[in-house]
Amino acid sequence: MERPVFKPLGSSVYDLDTPSLFVIRDRVLANAETYRNLVSKAGKRLTPNASTHRTPALSRLLNQNDIYVNTISEAIAFSNVISGQLTIGRPFNSSQLQSILAISSVTPIRIVASSEQQISEMAALIQGKAENISFVLRVSITPEQRGTPIGQINETEKLISGLWVSDIGIADPKQQLTRICMELSQHNIPLVIETCMFPDTYTLNLDVDEIVDGSHPFIGASDYCVGVISSVVSAPEPGKAFLDCGQKAISTDGGVPTVVGNSSFTLEKMSAEHGFLLWESNESSVSLGESIILKPASISDTFNLYDYLNIVESEVLVGLMEIQCRGAYS
Amino acid sequence: MINTRPNIGDSVDQIPTPSLLIDVPAMDHNFSVISQTYAGKVCKMRQHAKNIKSPVVMQRQIDAGGTLNGVCAAKVAEAEVMVEGGIRDVLVTSEVTSPDKLRRLASLAKIADVKLCIDNQDNLEQISQIASDAGCEIGVLIEVDTSMGRAGVRSPAEGVALARRATDLNGVKFMGVMSHQTVDGWADRETRFTEGRRYIEICLEVKTAIEGSGIPVEMVSSGETFTFDVAPEIEGVTEVEGGTYALMSVTNGYMEDFQIAAKVITTVLDVRDEYGFIDAGVQCLGGPLGVKPSVEGHPDIEFIRMDASESCLRSKGPFPFDPGDKIFLLSAQQDILVNRWDSFVAINEGEVEAVWDIPARGCHH
To answer: Of the candidates A242, A270, A289, which has its C-beta nearest B98's C-beta?
Structure first.
C-alpha cells in the first residue's frame, strides 16, 4: 500500500511527499457542474462513471448520486455513499448473488447485461428476493464490442429497462452513433450511451435519454485538474534530469504524461520507477529535489495506482481521500 | 481494496476473477536456478524488491540460497516494507533527494544495514548531514551510467571525486559502485554475454579508478536478470541485482533457464464467433505504451483492445472458450503488473496453497 509522509491540511502542494496524486477541488467542481448543466439543458440524464476515480468520497464531493461502476466490488464500496441508482457494468452469477442482494438492500441497482439470456438468468436468481434491480441490454455496434448485435435484439425479455450503447472502440462515433441511435429509438426503450470521447460533447446531440461519462470533472476546463507531483532525483548532465515518478506512479497506458507549467520541458520516456525529463539546456535548469508537476495522459489508470488522493485548492492541501476502490477488479 | 480472497485449498476454478496467481513450482524452479548458479561463487544475488514487492516471497529466495541475505529496493517506502518484513540488508537503487525520505532512511539504518546509491556531491552531503543528525550511518554506492543515459556518473574521474568526498564525511560509509543496464529485444546467449560484459566493464572501470586513488571498494553491485550468469564470471562483481527472473514475463522469454510464474486468471464474459471478452482490463494487467499480455497455451489468440476493466480478444478461428471458462494471461511487463495488485494467490497442483499480501504495492515514495 502507498506509504507517503502525510502532510497536514494547509501545506503547500509542493511540500507533498512525491510522487503523489492530487486533484484541484474548485476546478473539478466547476467542470462537473458545467457538464451537468449542459446535459440537463439537452434534456438528458447524466450518470457519472465513478470507476474513473474509484473514490467514494470524491463522488460525495462531486454530488454524484446516480453512478456507474465497472465491477461488483466497486459497487459494494460506492453503495455506502450514494443516494441514487447504482449501475454495474457486468452481469452477476449465483456466487455473486448475495453481494448483489446486499447492495440492493441499500440502493437500487441496474445491471448492464450482454444478452437477453443473461438477463433471464439473473432475473431468475433474484426472483422474489429483490425488487429494485433492473437490467439494461448492452448493444454491440462492432464485433469488437461485447453485447447483443442490433439485429438480434428480440425484446422477448420484458425485464429490459434500457438499451446501452458505447463509443469505446468506435472509429467515427459521432457519425456511426447518430445513425445507430436513430435506429435503436424505434424500440421505444430508453437509450443510454457510455462515452469515452469527452471533452467532445457530440453525445448531447444524440437521440439518447442518458449519458454515462467519467472524465468530465477532470478534463473539462483549459487548466489541468489532476496532477502527480514528482521530484528531481538526479540531474547528471545539462538538459536532462530524472524524476522519482515512473510508470508505477503515473500511467503510461494511454500515452506519456505532460509537464505542467514549463513548456520547455518534455518527458522523453518513463521507466517503471523514473521519468526522463529533457529540455534545451540554454532554456531552463532544474535543481535536485525540485518539484515537477505531471499531467497524466490516462486519468482513470493513474487513479488506480494510488491509495490516497490529495485535494488541493490554490496550491494548498485542503483534503485527503482514500481511493477505496483502487484494485477492486472482481 | 475490497476483492474477495480465496480460501486455502480452493481449486483454481473457485478463485474470484481476475486474480494474480503465482505458480509456486515455477517460482521455486527459478529460485533454484539462482541457488545453483551462485553456489560456491564470490558473487551473490541481491534480489530486487521492485519486481515482487513481498518480503515473504523475497525471503523464499534467501532461504533457497544463492543470495547475500539482502535485497534491493527501488524506493525508500519499498525498503521500509522489506525491513519490516524481516530483511536486514537493503540497497536502495534510486537516488533520494527529499529530506523527508532521507530521514526515513536514516531511521531505517538504525535497525538494518541500509545502503543508497548516489551520483551527486550535494546529495551526498545532504545524506551525510541527515544521517549524522540522526546518529546513524548510511552506506553509499556510486551509481555508474553504463549504457542507458540515465542517472549515474559519466566518468571514472567523477566517481573518484565522489568516493573521495564520501570518505571525508560523517554519517555515510563509502561502499562501492553500482550500475543498471538493459539489452534490447530478444537477446541470444552470445549477445547477453557480449553486451552484458561490456556494460559491467564500464562500471568496473570506475571501481578500478577509485581503488587507484587509494580508496578500497567493497561492493560492485551490477548485472540484472539478463546477466545473471554473466556477472558472476566477471572478477570484481560482488552482487547481481536480479528481479524479473523470479516471476518472469513473456518479453523476457529468451531467458530460457527461467519459467513464467506470474499469471492472471480471468473469466470469459461473452463469446461471439472469433471474439472473446474477458473480465480483466488494462487497469489490472497494465499496458504501458500499448504492451499487451499473452494467453497461456493459445498463441493464436491476440488482444484486440484492453478497456479499463475488460478486454476483447480474437482467435484465428472460432473462439476456443465458452462464457464462464477461465483463461490464464501471461504478462509482458511483470513488475508493472505486480504493482497493480494487493495479493498473490499461490497455486500448487491446481489448489490455493497460500495468499501472500503485496505490502510494497504502491510504495513509490
So the answer is: A289
